[in-house]
Design a protein that fits this description.
single chain; mainly alpha; 72% helix; 0% strand; globular
Length: 155
């Protein structure tokens, strides 16, 4: 599923990112990687905190949940800060991409398959190691936890 998710993000990013004049061409791939990071981080956080129902809700409501909106806001803020994309363009890109990707993921299988694939068979340690592979292991200890969040937020 991780590879499928990466492919879905790549497909959905073509029009919203690569063909968008507000996104400088040299940042196209970095914007896509940021999107992957935001989505994986949110799904991992929900799954590891026992909130798989929130993931299911995101997938069943066309992305109209507080968690989906949080991903949109985080993604928009990140690409504004990291790549200098203006607020209106960043918000528009996020509002298009996040729901589109959630809808595409929903079409790929049920919540159990999705959670199992993120966790390498359903285990939470698999989620943490997946997060580490996505570059979320900011403190270099091999897992993704609150220490990494502190490093990301610089406290």
């Amino acid at each position: 599923m991780f590879e499928q998710l990466s492919n879905l993000i790549q497909e959905h990013s073509q029009q919203s990112v690569a063909d968008n004049p507000a996104v400088p061409n040299e940042h196209n791939q970095n914007v896509v990687e940021e999107l992957k990071s935001v989505i994986i981080s949110k799904v991992t956080g929900l799954a590891t905190s026992g909130q798989a129902d929130k993931i299911s809700e995101m997938l069943s409501t066309n992305g109209d949940t507080p968690e989906s909106k949080d991903m949109e806001n985080n993604f928009a803020t990140n690409i504004m800060e990291k790549f200098g994309i203006n607020s209106q363009a960043a918000s528009s890109i996020a509002a298009t991409m996040i729901p589109g990707i959630l809808n595409a993921v929903r079409g790929q299988g049920g919540i159990q398959e999705i959670l199992a694939s993120f966790g390498g068979g359903g285990g939470l340690s698999g989620l943490s190691s997946l997060g580490a592979k996505m570059g979320l292991d900011k403190d270099g200890d091999g897992d993704v936890d609150l220490g990494d969040l502190g490093k990301m937020l610089k406290f």
